[in-house]
Amino acid sequence: MLAARYSILDVIPKESLHLLALDVPGKGRSHLQLQRCRRHDKIKINTTSLQEVIHLHGDHKMFKKVLLILTLLIILTGTSNAQQTGFGLGLILGEPTGLSGKYWISPRTAIDGAFAWSIDKKSGVHLHSDYLWHDYRIISVIKGKLPIYYGIGARMVFASDNILGVRGVAGINYLFDGTPLDIFLEIVPILDLAPKVGFDFNGAIGIRYYF
């Protein structure tokens, strides 16, 4: 059992990998690999490298301290993109006007929807849902994130003649830093399929709170 004191030297971030460097007197430096899962923005621990460190140094107190540090790293990583997780509910204003919801599947994809009222000449209860992709590379901001998003979905308007159509969505979405809110602006060309084929256009702004 090794009773020597050790210290954490650095956490070296890379594009898709973190190395946790440990220095144990008389034993040299060891590294634990923390593999970032890009799709879900979570950290996976390379358990083989963790086992190698414990095997080489034989220090179970060190093992407990390393686990504590890893836990803190995972918590910090998990909260850094809080606006890109969970379910948000709020208001959409324009065409249509009503309640808006959004559920993040991953940091880059989401499903949104609205239960609202159509205020144009086809006034009636409006329902829609879209599958969205987000691109964070186009616009850079100092605080928060400002992705461009686009997607495809469907809408129904329950009026004197019920309407079914396909939506194409393009918009911009500001994600606040440290606050579970987002605001959005979108334009939506629509191809109506029933009761007759025709083209329409929606546009709206909105805000949502994330739980």
Write out key terms for the chains shown.
211 residues; mainly beta; Porin; 4-stranded antiparallel beta sheet; 2 helices; disordered N terminus
Write the layout of secondary structure elements.
Blueprint: E1 7-13, E2 17-24, E3 28-37, E4 42-45, H1 47-57, H2 60-79, E5 87-95, E6 97-104, E7 109-118, E8 124-135, E9 148-158, E10 163-175, E11 181-194, E12 198-210
Antiparallel strand pairs: 1-2, 2-3, 3-4, 5-6, 5-12, 6-7, 7-8, 8-9, 9-10, 10-11, 11-12
Beta-strand proportion? over 45%
Evaluate the radius of gyration: 24 Å
Total domains: 2
H/E topology pattern: EEEEHHEEEEEEEE
The CATH topology of the largest domain comes to Porin
Mean pLDDT: 76
Measured between the Cα atoms of the first and last residue, the distance is: 47 Å
The number of distinct β-strands equals: 12
User: Which CATH first-tier class of the largest domain would you pick?
Assistant: Mainly Beta
Percent range for helical residues? 10-25%
Summing up helix and strand content along with how strands pair, one would put the structural category as mainly beta
- Please tell me what the overall shape is: elongated
Describe the sheet with the most strands.
Answer: 8 strands, antiparallel, barrel
